[in-house]
């Protein structure tokens, strides 16, 4: 449970909200604390400055007129403001009290004992255990003269804490409420995100077990999960189609292999058991065995070639190939069959004879497969044309025949393995031709109409002309 994505997503989301909330609260409290302390220092400084001015004026009058010490009613001021008022320094009212509590200079920090300028510091007054924030203002008889003392106004630091603690409490409550809503939102989001993911996970387990009829969740939100579901459904469909093609492929291979093997075994058994004793019939049976063996050899070779091509384990050589010479070689290999069957067999060449960088043997194999297919479907007395075109960096080899043609619904099927209505062929020539063309960086195209023959076109890039 704790390791599941459904738990970790809201947990991480909530943790991020809590951390950001705590950080924001800490920053806000620190800023408000600094602000309250700054305001308290300014207020203490104003109070100390005002009292120091009054005390200095009273001391000047006492020196000039012999007036009595002023009564600042410090207790009332302390009661009204909550601050404590002290005096540090020499008394200018001999024998009289000014109503201010005196503290020794030893309680002041060493760098503030000169009392020549206003200072802020912390101290623990006599008889107190709490720390106070204090502001000291020098007392002078006249501006510019030496100070003879200082008025101190102090306030407990605990009182300052009481100003920002309510803010902290409110922020903590707000953080708790926000965390609650964030938790609910993250739980809802995790359910919305992990639901399709878990469904995809179950579908993946189903596919791993060999069942491709999976139910992929249909999410139409247009987000990444929807895109993943769509692609997963496509993958499952392709896997199912691939498995079906493999099953058909294996069935076709087993059937195609069994057919010549059955014929070979039948004739061999007949000869071995003495069922055929006529030398002429024996030779005919041996001819059948040889023909079926050759057919079996071609079939095994084609299957291996197709398997290597589809597994991308097919090696393609790079060499200079004279396409005109190669096409003429392929053309000459079928001359005898054309004459024997009375087929109008012609070779056309257009453009400058190209020399390209490719694998000549594989190109010859493609052209030979296309010609083999054309001769297989062209009736005696028909027409077959082999054309070579070179223009705009592209080499094109066309094989046109006057056979029965191919319907639109069958044009893609002829490139599938073992799809052939001709019992003399293996049904692998055209699939191998297409795969080889793709491995060479080209393609095989088909133009055909029923009753008008077919035109297969090999298109190759002239990757380097010499």
Task: Give an overview in words.
53% of the residues lie in helices and 16% in strands. By secondary structure, it is of the alpha+beta class. The protein folds into three domains: 5-163, Beta-Lactamase; 224-310, Signal transduction histidine kinase, dimerisation/phosphotransfer (DHp) domain (Helix Hairpins, Orthogonal Bundle), CATH 1.10.287; 319-461, Histidine kinase-like ATPase, C-terminal domain (Heat Shock Protein 90), CATH 3.30.565. The strands form three sheets. The protein has a five-stranded mixed β-sheet. A five-stranded mixed β-sheet has the order 7-9-10-12-11, covered by helices on one side. The chain has a two-stranded antiparallel ribbon with strand order 6-8. Strand 9 and strand 10 (394-401) form a beta hairpin. The longest helix is centred in the N-terminal third of the chain and has 61 residues, at 5-65. The two termini are 68 Å apart.
Q: What is the rounded distance between the termini?
A: 68 Å
- CATH-level-2 architecture of the largest domain: 2-Layer Sandwich
Helix content: 40-55%
- The coarse overall form would be rod-shaped
* Biggest sheet architecture: 5 strands, mixed
Percentage of β-strand residues: 15-25%
Q: Let me know the average pLDDT.
A: 77
**Topology, number of strands:** 12
Can you count the helices?
9
Rg (C-alpha, Å): 52 Å
Name the strands of the widest sheet in spatial order.
2-1-5-4-3
Order of helices and strands: HHEEEEEHHHEHHEEHEEHEE
The name CATH uses for the topology of the largest domain is Beta-Lactamase
Which residues form runs of ≥5 with pLDDT under 50? none
The CATH first-level class of the largest domain comes to Alpha Beta
Specify the oligomeric state.
Answer: single chain
For the record, the count of structural domains works out to 3
What structural class is derived from the secondary structure elements? Answer: alpha+beta
